[in-house]
Structure to design on (229 residues):
């Protein structure tokens, strides 16, 4: 469908190629155990996962800092679970979480396959709101860094998706035109609407079982990208 027009494909990383929820769960399993936190992992994640998404939205909107994000998502989780913890433990868990997260390297099914399929025909890039030191490690440790020409993160750009500037910086660095570029990501707000506003073609990877919408085509498996590219 886009084979004749698209030259550059931009991917989001977390929740699109890199299986954030799976790797995050494995990280929490390790650090909660190491710190003798007496909460079942499933009970912890049931509260933490939606809270983390809420705090990331606040961070994306510039309403909280990176430090506040990392502290408050844990603090609020423990408060809602009625589990008393010291600030010292929260800071330790936060540091360990960042230290260990990128050591788990689970990708979504067919991620490597689709990157190998696309690489000969398109220039591939990453646009991520994740933090540079963590995202670079994820790409390296998952052995997918070699697929991408440009990796643009929000710290480098000074703004976060869906701000048009991060997409414009990515286009400039990739020497690409928006009408010849496609953005593939899981977030309707950050990836799809953000990229569409700048003139990208878009494809929504529905990692969160969201309902149908009219913004762009939706896929549920990365293998489906072959239908479009």
């Amino acid at each position: 469908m886009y084979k004749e027009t698209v030259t550059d494909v931009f991917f989001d990383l977390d929740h699109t190629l890199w299986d954030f929820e799976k790797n995050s769960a494995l990280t929490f399993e390790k650090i909660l155990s190491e710190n003798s936190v007496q909460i079942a992992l499933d009970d912890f994640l049931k509260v933490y996962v939606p809270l983390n998404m809420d705090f990331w939205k606040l961070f994306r909107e510039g309403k909280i800092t990176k430090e506040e994000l990392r502290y408050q998502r844990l603090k609020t989780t423990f408060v809602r679970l009625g589990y008393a913890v010291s600030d010292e433990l929260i800071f330790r868990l936060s540091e360990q979480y960042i230290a260990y997260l990128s050591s788990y390297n689970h990708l979504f099914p067919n991620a490597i396959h689709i990157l190998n399929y696309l690489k000969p025909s398109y220039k591939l890039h990453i646009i991520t709101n994740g933090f540079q030191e963590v995202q670079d490690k994820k790409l390296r440790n998952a052995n997918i860094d070699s697929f991408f020409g440009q990796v643009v993160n929000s710290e480098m750009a000074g703004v976060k998706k869906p701000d048009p500037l991060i997409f414009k910086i990515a286009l400039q660095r990739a020497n690409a035109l928006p009408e010849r570029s496609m953005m593939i990501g899981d977030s309707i707000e950050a990836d799809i609407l953000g990229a569409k506003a700048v003139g990208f073609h878009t494809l929504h990877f529905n990692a969160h079982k969201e309902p149908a919408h009219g913004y762009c085509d939706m896929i549920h498996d990365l293998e489906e990208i072959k239908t479009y590219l």
Observations:
- The two ends are 7 Å apart (CA to CA).
- The domain at 8-19+107-227 is CATH 3.40.50.1000 (Rossmann fold).
- The longest strand covers residues 123-128.
- Strands lie at 8-11, 123-128, 150-153, 181-185, 201-205, 217-219.
